[in-house]
Amino acid sequence: PGLEDQKYASHLWMADLTGGARPFTHGKASDGGARWSPDGRAIAFVRTQDEIAQIHTIDCAGGESRPLTALEAGSIACLDWFADGSGIVFTYRAAPKKNPAARRVTELWYKVEAMGYWDGSYAQIRAVDLHGRVTKLTEEKNSVGEVRGSPDGELLAYTGVLTPGGEAELWVMRRDGSGRRRIPRPRPTPLMAVHP
Description:
- The chain is mainly beta.
- The chain is built from no helices and 16 strands.
- Strands 3-4-5-6 form a four-stranded antiparallel sheet, with no helix packed on it.
């Protein structure tokens, strides 16, 4: 095999309380970011194949995964199920359309850790229902860091950076993306949870 066949791939593993573990997904694609559904019957995860990331679901008993999204190339992160199990909220940032041989940097904030050179696009919140319909919940001139649903399923809490190089602030909005409001201090940490 040539070097092009020698790629790193991560997979999901299933572990039990006795210490046993077994691979749960297989193949050439990389799988990660797994989240159990609220009823414990399915797992949502991000599968990256041929440098394109999509959300998949799989029955917790095993079997073949099912693609839930068909997004353009980009990064997907922060999966969280809606409390009623009807869909998943996540962050998405479209991949740059082109990768020039040379760049002219005019601003101090020109590169994003783990994402590469900033091309003017921002990570935004999306939701997908179990039929694969994706809804844009934010389309702002800011980046979203993390998103979590409330236990009652009515609200989404998220961190957002309003200005390049700025600090993250905590925001709340309704599940449909309406009613956005900033929560005053304290500043959020990179990880957050919504208290029941």
